[in-house]
Amino acid sequence: MRFLRYFRRRIIYVIPQFFGVLIIIFMIVRLVPGDPARLMAGSLVSPEGVEIVRERMGLTGPLYLQFWKYLKNVFQGDLGKSWFTGNQVIDDIVAKLPATMELIILALIITIAILVPIALKSISEGNSFIKKLSGKSLFIYGLTAGCFPDFWLGLILILVFFAKLGWIPAPVGQLPIGITCASITGVVLIDSLLTANWLAFIEHLKLLILPVFVLVFVYGSGIMKVTLVTATSVQKSDFIRFAKNCGLPAKKVSSYVKRATYPATVTMTALMLGFLIGGAVLVENVFSWGGIGQYAVRAVTNMDYTAIQGVVLVAALINIIIYILVDIVYFIVDPRIEQLG
């Protein structure tokens, strides 16, 4: 019952957040310089023809009427029709979103499975060689990771590992030219396993290495730093000193430190997810990944209002869902919040 009350209070905040996102998306897109109707009609069409195109695109009439129509369509599950691809925006997003989520989820899994344990190990008791090495390595990594733009690092890696060494296939998408895989979930890594297409699995894995490495290297440092700083602060806290003075085993004390560190790590992971969605836009274009990030860039280039609105709305909804999940995780790992429930 505590959990249900806590969850209900959090869900209430979603409603104003959602309406705020809709208003901001609608207004900001229309502040972008340029005339999409002229772009779609072409430079040789007369002003009368451009007005006809503008009316077909739904860009005529007062803004509040345009917004009301947009609002009704959104609540009916209609994000509009892309002016550039000619498809329903929701269909384009459903087709391309799995490729982007594959990159983001793999990057988060690797960060949590490798960087977070290394950060916790570096502040553990003792004076081992591994502790010293991990501490120095994390310090150097934390200083350098933020200095590399993700797109620049991706281009350098392509130059080295494809152009010079030839260790990976050409970065032309999720699979090399000539290799196909039946689509079941939209995630090639999973689909190739489900269909036992081992050639597609191996080749896709090769193409995954560099974009995932770029995302982990550039954006994983934030999660690692927060974990390291929080764990160091917790280790110096009064309740940890009290636990040590009581003679509790080092393993038990370490579990206290980890549990007290988890809320900060979870928060930073959720924040980093938003950065990863934004970072995937440039990384996908560098590696021609064909996900929602590349779709968004093409929509901006072609002033495709409906596609831009759809992508931003989906990204905002993903972030809202993630923050709700973070609140649930908080309820589980932090007993103080559980008491408030």
Question: Can you tell me about this structure?
Answer:
The chain is mainly α. 76% of the residues lie in helices and 0% in strands. The chain contains 15 helices and no strands. It has helices at residues 2-12, 14-30, 36-41, 47-56, 63-75, 89-122, 129-145, 150-164, 188-194, 198-235, 238-245, 250-287, 292-301, 305-333, 335-340. The chain is globular and about 85 Å long. The mean pLDDT is 79.
The biggest beta sheet is recorded as: none
Helix content: over 70%
Terminal CA distance: 8 Å
Helix segment tally: 15
* Mean pLDDT over the residues: 79
Helix and strand topology:
Elements: H1 2-12, H2 14-30, H3 36-41, H4 47-56, H5 63-75, H6 89-122, H7 129-145, H8 150-164, H9 188-194, H10 198-235, H11 238-245, H12 250-287, H13 292-301, H14 305-333, H15 335-340
Helix pairs in contact: 1-14, 2-14, 6-7, 6-10, 6-12, 7-10, 8-10, 8-12, 9-10, 10-12, 12-13, 12-14, 13-14
